[in-house]
Structures are given as structure tokens and as C-alpha cells.
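User: hey, got a sec? need Peptidase S54 rhomboid domain-containing protein folded
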Amino acid sequence: MGKPLFYEILEKPATSCAIGICSAIWFYIQKSNIGYSHVGLSYEAAMEGHYWRIITSAFSHISVIHLVFNMSALWSLGVVEQLGHLGLGVWYYLHYTLVLVVLSGMLVVGMYHILIQKFKLEYFRRVTAVGYSCVVFGWMTILSVKQPSSKLNLFGFLSLPISFAPFESLIFTSIIVPQASFIGHLSGIIVGYAVGWGLIHGMNNYWALTMLGWTVVVFIFSLKKSGTFDLNFLEIEPVTDPSLPSVRFFAAGNGRSLQMSTLPDAGSDLV
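Assistant: Yep! Here you go:
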């Protein structure tokens, strides 16, 4: 008999939170009738400055089948949190989940750019990626490098050797969910190998918080720039002090003259 679900949740706190967030967002999307175009990541949207979609696309699912597949795989991959003795553990999981979300999203846009600009495949301008698959495939890959003897359990009855799971799941997902983003899954695998092989390493609390901080800043300001939401509280009003002198340059012949004057009182016109 396995452990009660409550104890498994306590052993996988970060995984449980991620599943809860993705499930809550899926419920909200369904209730609000939100489509791919509102939250997904596409090349055209990225070129228009919608960088916030790298985050929203990762945590959003439109299809319940896609959600169940991703969350089932993610639950099995939560074993990473229990492998602190191998240098993994909860903090490792949190640090590199952030890396997978951000870098795999950027890699998706980069791949679209190459396919469009180099191979003239204009179709990829309109392709919209959505779902937590990048992170799921990334963790499959990391675990296949760090713990190749592990098994990946899907839906409670399908067990795959973790060493082959990334590519087996890539094929399986393409069959079960034809609309799933092949490039999105592949980008997660690539970033996963980069982490597993040590090409991307050294993440600690400092660097994770720094990366998270910049991610939040870019998210908020790209959201404002895109005009998707009205974020008037971010407006910075110009402040002028009438007591400070103004400096103006005037062309005089072949030279320049410098003139200083005080600004007029508020309400006056500047000439």
C-alpha cells in the first residue's frame, strides 16, 4: 500500500504548488473563455514586445487532456525534491524550474526566428505555444542524466524508463495531443540537457532571486507596454522644481553661447 496522498504532498511541496497553480489557471481560463491567443507565446507576439507571454504560456493549458498529461508527469518527476542526498532537493527544484520556464520560452522564440528568417517557414509566425510541457520535458531530461535508473509513471499505470522518457514522451504526446508544440517540448529537452550536463549550473538563492526579480520587472513592464492591461500606477510623472535654474544653448555664428535662467512660475507658458 502506498503512502497517503497528504504525506506525498508534504514530500513534494514545490511540485504540489506548481500543479495547484496550473490547475487553478486552467479552471480560470475555462470559466473566462480565454483562448490560446490571449495567453500563448507566438513569434509575432514576442516581436511586439509581449515578453510576459513567456510566463503566462508556461502555466496555461487550454485542453484538459494536455493538463492531465503534464500534471501526471510532473507529479512523478517530483521525486527530484526527495533526492537531496544526490545534490538535488527542493531548492534545486525551485531554482531550475525558474531556469526552465524562462530559458525554454526564450529558446522557443529563437527557434521560431530561425525557422522563419533562415528557412522562410512563415507558418511559424502564427504558431502559438502554451502549456507546462517545456518544464516537464526539462525535468525528465535532467532526471534522465542525474538518475538514469528511475522510472517515469504516467496516469498511474504507464511506466517508462527515465533514460528514454523525454523522447518517448515527445512521440507519445504528439500522438495523443496532435496540437501540442513539438518545438516547445524540444526546447525543454535542450535546456534540460544543458542543466543536467552542467552547462548551466551554479544557481543558488542569490542568483535565483536575481533572476526572479528581473523576470518580474520585464513581465510587468512588457505587460504595460503591450497595453493588454491598464497599469496606470506605473506611470512616472515628470517633476520640475521652479527654484532650479535651466540651461539652454544658443547658436551664435560659428560658436555657441550658454544662457542660464530660472524657470517661470507654475502655470506660465514656456517660450
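Quick note: Confidence is low (pLDDT under 50) at residues 236-240, 246-271. Let me know if you need anything else on Peptidase S54 rhomboid domain-containing protein.
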